[in-house]
Amino acid sequence: MSGFADLAGTVGAWGPAALRAVVVSASGAVAGAALLRPLLRSPAGPPRPGLDRAVLGAAAAACAGTLLAVPVRGTTPTLAALQGLLVVGAALGPARDRLAVVCGAVLTAVLACQTTAGTGTAGRLVAVAHTAAAVVWLGAAVLVASAGRGRRGGTLRRLAPAAVGAVVTVLVTGLAAVWLDGLRPDAASTGSGFGRVVLGKASLLVLAAAAGAAVWRRRRPRAASRLGLAVLAAATAAGSALAGLPLPPPPPATGVPLLRTVRLGDETVPVAVFPQRPGSNLVHVGVHAMHTLTVGLSPTGSVPAGARAGTHGGWAVVTLPPGRSRLWVGHPGVRAAVRVDTGGTPGPSLTGPDGPECASAALGALLAGSSAPVTSCPADRLAAGDAAALRRTVAFLAGRGIRALRVTADASPRSRAAAGVVRAAAAAHGLRPGTGGADVVVAGWDGADAALRRLLAGTVPPGGVYLAPWLAAGRLLEYSSGAVVALGFDPYGLPAQQYVAALAGAFPGEAPSAAGYRAWRAVRHGPPDGPTLLYAAAQVSFLPAAAGHDHGGTGWLSGGRLTPATGPLGQPGSRPR
Q1: What are the structural domain ranges in the chain?
Q2: pLDDT tens for residues 378-426?
Q3: For the segment 171-181, what is each residue's pLDDT rounded down to a tens digit?
Q4: Domain 253-342, what fold?
Q5: Which CATH code fits 380-564?
Q6: Which residues contact 350 (CB under 8 A, 6 or more apart)?
Q7: Using CA atoms, how far apart are residues 427 and 423, in angstroms rounded to an integer?
């Protein structure tokens, strides 16, 4: 029923779409009549002199709609004036045959250009053919309707080959267009409102082709012409409805992380699949207000999407087969299908404790426009910038008089390397290993979450808690542990805020992360890491939202903000603020 809900929900927005349908249909009818009229000429001259009333009526409707489109649809006055002049020229009929044909051809080209915006080369070619065929079909209908009773049968038979060919072309190019837009013969596409209207329009076009064929073979031409005109009106209405409906999602890119949204009742829930390769995949779903969501390869064989340490939303591990399949997401009341295409080559596993961070990085790259598969994860290696930030952090602690340092690490390659860097820097500055000083956390999200929970349950060390740069993420920043994080970028600078906005728009409720921002920045060729500062998580935003300084909600820290606690580390004046 969600497809019909989509259809009903667009009724209020159909004003501009209806106006567009009037302009396109009326202009197409005038252009088609001008192009087809030479087929009705005889050696004795045109069927009748003067301007056909049907053509005049269509021209008046097209001109009026074109004028209204300026304030209603934002059409430029120059384009409206040009289209109006072309309509008038094409409507001159037999009085100016050559001018009418030229104006009709140019008007057809203008209508085709208006339907090809934002498409690729194949889409443009299909749209041009679809528009030209529709114009011929409309013109044939107008000429038949305006013919006198004694001439209607002859007009029908003479125009039937062109009309039938136009209907078949409209049918084929229409189906090709929606295929290019992502419609496929499966429940995820044809079950949507857009898919149902497309199938209905295709059925109507088949009826129109059958009616035209009957006319061509001289079988009950009057009944066939009436059926053809009725089908024409219904197909035009269906085409107008398509303008107000959302397109189905495009086909998934093979072997590339997938981001989609599904409609579950009254809520739209984001769904992401990492790495979308054969084998175990990490599926991330947004928060649902009423239910715990489940995911799986069948509506009945689903597993619950549970919480993961240091993150928000739901996470589940699902084993996907090679090639195309469907992933079902929902709850016992309602479920929706997401198309996946894993290809045939297995990818890296994201099911371990560092999987959510790797997924956050993959999501950042995806939002930046990357179409590359996942080949590695941030926890696989220690970045040079992170190693330098950790050394500066240890030097800062030594400058504060800290004499003991405890390192919290895990088994990942990055964490082991980071622990070595911190211990070597501590030894160089005379800091002994042990408690009673400061804690430096270089574990991944999972280990850092456990460490911060232990600190909250016990006593915060007198020297404070310092987080590695990759721990600027999600739930980790929301603990009131007093921890500070070393960052080599401004979390409220323009590039970082562009990433935050893109994430909030694509995956509402998802917290940004250093890994996600770095991946997004790498694709966008953003600025390199700057000076390292220590940032403290403040749960209260001191600046009012009205002044444009509220960074809660969809920012780096829900209900608060990251505040610089020092100047640039490693430079004079980098004392605590």
Answers
A1: 2-243, 253-342, 380-564
A2: 999 999 999 999 999 999 999 999 999 999 999 999 999 999 999 999 9
A3: 788 777 766 65
A4: Immunoglobulin-like (2.60.40)
A5: 3.40.50.2300
A6: 274, 275, 280, 281, 282, 358, 359, 374, 377
A7: 6
